[in-house]
């Protein structure tokens, strides 16, 4: 196995706190949870959960917060041809290394 690659993401601090509470209850670190997500994407060649258009009140508070942030950053709309994605400096930076 190759050496782990550092990965950095910007997260809303409240979203991060809420997700890490769930990870703690599951006995996972954020690193392990992210690695599980990546492995599921590779295995299934798809996002490992349903992505649909539903009113936000139908989602859990964590998913609702995540969707709100993605929408504010424009990540849920189709990017322009010249757009590299959101360059948002809001939120908290979170670094992880594969385990």
From TrEMBL:
<protein>
    <submittedName>
        <fullName>DNA-damage-inducible protein J</fullName>
    </submittedName>
</protein>
<dbReference type="InterPro" id="IPR013321">
    <property type="entry name" value="Arc_rbn_hlx_hlx"/>
</dbReference>
<keyword id="KW-1277">Toxin-antitoxin system</keyword>
<feature type="region of interest" description="Disordered">
    <location>
        <begin position="74"/>
        <end position="99"/>
    </location>
</feature>
<dbReference type="InterPro" id="IPR007337">
    <property type="entry name" value="RelB/DinJ"/>
</dbReference>
<feature type="compositionally biased region" description="Acidic residues">
    <location>
        <begin position="80"/>
        <end position="91"/>
    </location>
</feature>
<comment type="similarity">
    <text>Belongs to the RelB/DinJ antitoxin family.</text>
</comment>
<dbReference type="GO" id="GO:0006355">
    <property type="term" value="P:regulation of DNA-templated transcription"/>
</dbReference>
<dbReference type="GO" id="GO:0006351">
    <property type="term" value="P:DNA-templated transcription"/>
</dbReference>
<dbReference type="Pfam" id="PF04221">
    <property type="entry name" value="RelB"/>
</dbReference>
